[in-house]
Amino acid sequence: MEIKLVEDAKSVACDLLVINKFENESTSSDFANKYAVEDDKFEGKLNDTYLLQTYGQTPAKKILIVGFGKKSEFNSNKLREAVAKAIKKASSIEAKTVAFKFDGVDFDYSEQLTMGIYIGDYVFDKYKSEKKDKHINEIYVQANEGLVHKAEKVAAAMNFARNLANEPAQFATPTELASIALDFGLETKVYDREECEKMGMGAFLAVGRGSAQEPKFIHMKYTCDNPKKRIAIIGKGICFDSGGLDIKPASSMLTMKDDMSGAACVLGIMSIIKEFNPQVEVHGIIAACENMPGCSAYKPGDILTAKNGKTIEVDNTDAEGRLTLADALCYACELGVDEVIDLATLTGACMVALGTHAAGIMGNDEDLVKRLIDVADRNGERYWQLPLWEEYGDSLKSDVADMQNTGSRWGGASAAGIFLQKFVKDVKWAHIDIAGTAFLDKPQKEFIKGATGAGVRAILNYILEV
Ligand code: BES
Ligand code: MN
Ligand code: ZN
Q1: Is the shortest distance between the CB of 20 and ligand 1 below 6 Å?
Q2: Pairwise CA distance, residues 287 & 236, whole Å
């Protein structure tokens, strides 16, 4: 699919012209006004659509009117969602060439228009022997060239991450993630089991021990002359979470190939970062392994020593993400960066609290958390702050080690945050729990079911805005 910039989208000969209609207003197309608006067939309620055959009376063979709802309530997030739905509609009627002509919208119109096109066009059909041959070849837009090109790259990073998280665990192994990371042409180091042992990563390695897949600790680095800031982004990289010996019930295990969505986000961002050339140093870090109940698996009651020397009693082998992140956080803090941001499908508790519409965010620096919430908000993600009061750590106390890896069921997202904080030293840090937002079991807004690329839009834009 290719996006082409045109002066007047309405005059393009194409299979489908997509136009908008606000409630109580007419559209920019006389044809649409005559056959759908003036006789009140189509009101323009948000996300309603109306398809018209034009029988040679316009350059476009068909016109799709998309309802934008009340003008006063419209914004760029609604625009992106409407565009994604229009794209799906266009595919379903097998349009090969589609033009977009929207009236009465400005803001970052061009950027979210482009995002909506690429997010809406996404399918994961690589394992279908009969691919849906419904792809749109050409899209014509009237838009700002710079913003379209920017959004094309952000969307590519997002769909790269979606592909990785949708990929079955049998293929998206720690070794595979490492080889993908090595292909970006960045300065990249992959540490194997022995090297991680030498670094003292006893928590990370314990999690990977029950699997036949070798663990890999991945560190990618993008840098430039005189970076304005140095940031490390860490992604939880559990390529499959069976729960380990504290095994999950079948229904909870079903989607656990998505437990590397944080890693997928980091890889998505690192895959495109050189093309943006931002004035920031960015470290992408992933402690990749599987959590399996093999005969060498770590056990409840084991006591692990993390990279910073702290000891952890294993209370539940299914609270594995925080163990791998503990060593990754220690590693990141030793890089001497200004900020560390981790993204993790960490707790079912966060999903219970916020559902699939928002990720939980916690951190030790209010300003960093606020800036991340704001950039997420402007780019189609929602982050909601959860508290990190020290009382949430009470239940992490262990009789035999410095701490245990789980605590009370109540407030589980915050307890996990407090656990992570014990491995953060002398750095501004934010933790984003994407358990609810990374993978959908049914379509939502601009997304089909499956991986959403959670974190890519917000964190990539955060980096670009430094
Ligand atoms: N990967 C899961 C969290 C998760 C749950 C992600 C649902 C996406 C959807 C994590 O490793 C986990 O198993 N957490 C446990 C922690 C508990 C044992 C303290 C949980 O949330 O149940
Ligand atoms: Mn788990
Ligand atoms: Zn997990």
Answers
A1: no
A2: 7
pTM strictly above 0.90: yes
Would you give the distance in Å from CA 348 to the centre of its chain? 17
Report how far residue 269's alpha carbon sits from residue 282's, in angstroms, rounded to the nearest whole number: 10
Query: Collapsing DSSP states into helix, strand and coil, what is residue 9?
Result: helix
Q: Is the CB of 317 under 6 A from ligand 1?
A: no
Instruction: Give the pLDDT band of residue 358 (cuts 50, 70, 90).
Output: very high
Residue 376 CB less than 6 A away from ligand 1: no
Instruction: Answer left, alpha or beta for residue 55, where phi above 0 means left and psi between -120 and 50 means alpha.
Output: left
pLDDT in tens, 366-404: 999 999 999 999 999 999 999 999 999 999 999 999 999
- What are the backbone dihedrals phi and psi of residue 219, each rounded to the nearest 5 degrees, phi first? -130, 110
pLDDT tens profile 421-456: 999 999 999 999 999 999 999 999 999 999 999 999
Nearest Cα residue to 186 out of 134, 127, 255, 233? 233
Ligand 2 center to 252 CA (angstroms): 10
* Tokens matching residue 212: 């036949």
- For residue 154, what are its two tokens? 């952000």
Q: Per-residue confidence at 201, pLDDT binned at 50, 70, 90?
A: very high
Tell whether ligand 1 has an atom less than 6 A from the beta carbon of residue 351.
yes
Ligand 1, pocket-test mutation among 292, 346, 431, 439, most atoms within 8 A of CB? 346
pLDDT of the residue at 133: 66
Query: Mean pLDDT across the chain, nearest whole number?
Result: 97
User: Residue 187: which of 264, 283, 286 has the closest Cα?
Assistant: 283
> Which of 287, 284, 306, 180 shows the shortest CA–CA distance to 238?
287
Question: Which ligand has the nearest atom to the CA of 435?
Answer: 1
**Nearest residue to 47 via CA among 9, 74, 82:** 82
Q: Which two tokens stand for residue 170?
A: 């049998």
Instruction: Give the DSSP per-residue string, 137-176.
Output: -EEEE---HHHHHHHHHHHHHHHHHHHHHHS-TTTS-HHH
Cα three-residue angle 23-25-31, rounded to 5 degrees: 115
Dump pLDDT digits (tens) for 219-252. Answer: 999 999 999 999 999 999 999 999 999 999 999 9
Q: How far is CA 266 from each of CA 131, 269, 272, 334, 464, rounded to the nearest angstrom?
A: 29, 5, 10, 19, 15
User: What are 309-341's pLDDT values in tens digits?
Assistant: 999 999 999 999 999 999 999 999 999 999 999
134 has a pLDDT exceeding 80: no
